[in-house]
Structure formats: C-alpha cells, structure tokens
C-alpha cells in the first residue's frame, strides 16, 4: 500500500509539472491517464485487461465507443471516458451516462487526466447516477483519496466491496460540501435549525439576518478550535516531558482576521489546518533556541505569517498554502522563497529559521 501511495504521489507531482505542455486529448491519455491505469496494476498492452476504443452501442446508434474498458473475465467492469486536460468535465457527464447502460460495467470514470470522477448506480440499478460517488484530483491529493483509489487496484479490486463503500462516500462528500457552504454563507433554513434550541422567540427575517454573521463566525471558530485541539494532542503525544508547546493560549492562537490589505478589509480570512500545522512545525524548531511563547502567527489573504513577539516587523517566515503550489518564504536578506511539496518539508530549513530568529533583538536564548 505504501508503495502504491508513493507512486500516485509521484504521478501527481509529475502531472503538476507537465500539464501545461499537454494540448490534446491523445496526449492527455498517453501522458496522464495510462500511467495511472498502470499504477493500478493493469497491463495497458493486454487486451484481456484493457480495451481501448471499446464498442458500446447506444440504442439505434451502432459503433459508439468508450475510450477504455477495464475487463474482468472478458466482461467490462470499469468504463473510462477521457477528455483533454484543457477541458472541464461537467458537460461530458451525459455522454458517459449513455454508455453506462449498454454494458455490464458497475463503475464509470470520467477524467481529463487531472480530475477523476467515479460513478456507479446507487440510485437506480443499471442507470448511472447523475453525481459521482468519488472525485480525486491528482494535483491536490488527500490521504483519504489514496485509500479509496487503492480499492481499484487490480490485485484487490472487488465490485461488491467498492459498492458497499460507494454510498457512504457519495453522501459523505455531499454533506461536507453542504457544511462548507453553510460555513461560508449560512442559509436561512440552516440558521433556523441552529436557532431552534438557543432562541425561543419568533424567528423573523430580521432575527435571522441578525444571527447570520454570529453563526458564521461561531462555525469558523468551532472548526479552528477543533483543529487546534487535534494539533495539541499530536504535540502532547510526541513529547515525553512537560515542556510542551501550547497553541491554544488565546493570546497566540487567535486568528487575526483583520490582517488584510486595506482595500480588502471586508475579506474573511480562514486559517486552514495545513497552515496551523506549518505554524506548529516552525514553533517546534524555534523552541530549541528560545521560549516558544514568543512565537505567534497572523493570517491574511495572501499568506500566513509566523512572527516573533507578535510583531509584524519581526516576521520569521511566510507560508503560502492557498495556491496551486506550496511555498515558504524566509525573512533573510534576499527574502528567499522555496517551493515545498508537503508541510513537513519546512523541517529542511531548520537552520535558516533559527538564524533568522536570532537577528531580532532581544533574542534571549532558551536555558
């Protein structure tokens, strides 16, 4: 499993590098899609395992072809419709929908080489669902995505096993999307549900509007507190003494949502779990040389600041995790910027981070 994960991550990194150089559908298939099929364990040159241009007649239309069909026992089990890396996938769902009903395949994949949408027939047997039960983005991989993708490896692929988890995956994804949308902009119905047990008066439109911002802020604060709690537990479990780094003190763990450009003063700042993890790593590095209570953070729209003494003029590094590529910028003479693959890569710059902190006065070395 670990080897599979590393292969997928490697492919994802490669896709990120070369995707801008790919212009056609055929190039997308060759450079992006077939390598993934190979990593899943299928022999792309064996017609008993993978058939390109698989014929899937639709009604009176004969000779309709799907880009790839993965076979098991001479029967298709997975259909793959490929589009150019330059194309969005939404408008092509109906085409795959037509193909699905003409074969015995229980899974269909729509992909442009970067995004993969997995479909099945949860709502009506032998009729492809309108919405995918699983989506994976090869340039934005999550640990959970790798676990689910691994179920499609040739060595372990079992139709019933994947179907058993497909329903949970699909609705879990929809629930998360809903909660995220409510966190960004609570709907009137959602506000009414929240107010059911905490406001006994009549829930007029004025009352709902008055509570909207409070509920939004409370929701975001709750998420931040849960992230902090998770990170604190991780720190506690990795330390064998009582000199643990605390990230939950109100003075240093609050999110400075007002730290934005003046022209964007109304922009909401949402500190991510990844940014907090980066902050903790920098804090642990500096903890070896100075009192960790001196290390703070401030988030803004463009980047995440790690500061000494909560002073914006004493910034140690800036973390950029909101764009397509992660980076760390050091407050050295050249303001050097390094692209990083994971948050853990911050450890590579341990020496530099300590040296940067030492340039600020007063620098009291930890005893």
Could you explain the architecture of this structure?
The structure is a single chain. 39% of the residues lie in helices and 18% in strands. By secondary structure, it is an alpha+beta fold. It has a six-stranded mixed sheet, with helices on both faces. Strand 2 and strand 3 form a beta hairpin. The model is unreliable at 240-266 (pLDDT under 50).
Share of helix among residues? Answer: 25-40%
The termini sit apart by: 44 Å
Give me the count of strands: 11
Note the main sheet.
6 strands, mixed
Give, in spatial order, the strands making up the sheet with the most strands: 1-2-3-4-5-6
Helical segment tally? Answer: 10
Question: What low-confidence regions span 5 or more consecutive residues with pLDDT below 50?
Answer: 240-266
Coarse morphology: globular
**H/E element sequence:** HHEEEHEEEHHHHHHEEEEEH
Oligomer: single chain
Determine Rg (CA atoms, Å).
Answer: 25 Å
β-strand amount: 15-25%
Give the structural class: alpha+beta
Mean pLDDT: 80
Summary?
The protein has 367 residues and is α+β, with helices and mostly antiparallel strands. The chain has helices at 2-18, 25-39, 93-100, 143-150, 159-184, 188-195, 205-238, 250-253, 273-287, 350-358; strands at 50-55, 65-72, 75-82, 107-111, 115-119, 134-137, 295-299, 304-308, 311-320, 326-330, 337-340. 39% of the residues lie in helices and 18% in strands.
């Amino acid at each position: 499993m670990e080897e599979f994960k590393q292969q997928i991550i490697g492919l994802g990194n490669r896709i990120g590098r070369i995707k801008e150089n790919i212009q056609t559908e055929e190039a997308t298939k060759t450079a992006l899609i077939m390598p993934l099929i190979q990593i899943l364990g299928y022999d792309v040159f064996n017609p008993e395992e993978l058939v390109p241009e698989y014929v899937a007649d639709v009604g009176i239309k004969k000779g309709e072809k799907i880009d790839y069909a993965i076979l098991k026992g001479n029967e298709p089990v997975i259909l793959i419709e490929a589009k150019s890396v330059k194309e969005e996938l939404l408008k092509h769902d109906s085409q795959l929908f037509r193909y699905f009903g003409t074969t015995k395949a229980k899974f269909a994949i729509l992909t442009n080489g970067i995004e993969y949408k997995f479909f099945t027939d949860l709502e009506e047997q032998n009729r492809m669902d309108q919405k995918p039960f699983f989506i994976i983005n090869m340039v934005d991989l999550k640990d959970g995505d790798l676990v689910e993708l691994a179920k499609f490896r040739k060595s372990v692929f079992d139709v019933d096993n994947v179907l058993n988890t497909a329903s949970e995956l699909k609705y879990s994804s929809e629930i998360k999307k809903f909660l995220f949308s409510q966190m960004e902009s609570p709907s009137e119905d959602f506000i009414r549900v929240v107010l059911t047990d905490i406001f006994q008066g009549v829930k007029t439109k004025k009352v709902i509007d008055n509570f909207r911002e409070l509920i939004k802020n409370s929701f975001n604060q709750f998420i931040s507190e849960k992230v902090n709690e998770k990170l604190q537990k991780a720190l506690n479990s990795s330390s064998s003494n009582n000199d643990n780094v605390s990230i939950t003190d109100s003075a240093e763990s609050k999110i400075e949502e007002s730290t934005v450009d003046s022209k964007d003063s109304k922009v909401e700042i949402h500190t991510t779990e990844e940014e907090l993890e980066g902050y903790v790593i920098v804090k642990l590095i500096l903890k070896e040389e100075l009192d960790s209570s001196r290390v703070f953070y401030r988030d803004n729209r463009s980047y995440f600041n790690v500061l000494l003494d909560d002073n914006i003029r004493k910034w140690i590094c800036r973390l950029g995790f909101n764009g397509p590529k992660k980076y760390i910028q050091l407050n050295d003479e050249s303001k050097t910027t390094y692209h990083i693959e994971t948050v853990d890569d911050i450890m590579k710059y341990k020496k530099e981070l300590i040296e940067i902190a030492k340039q600020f006065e007063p620098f009291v070395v930890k005893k």
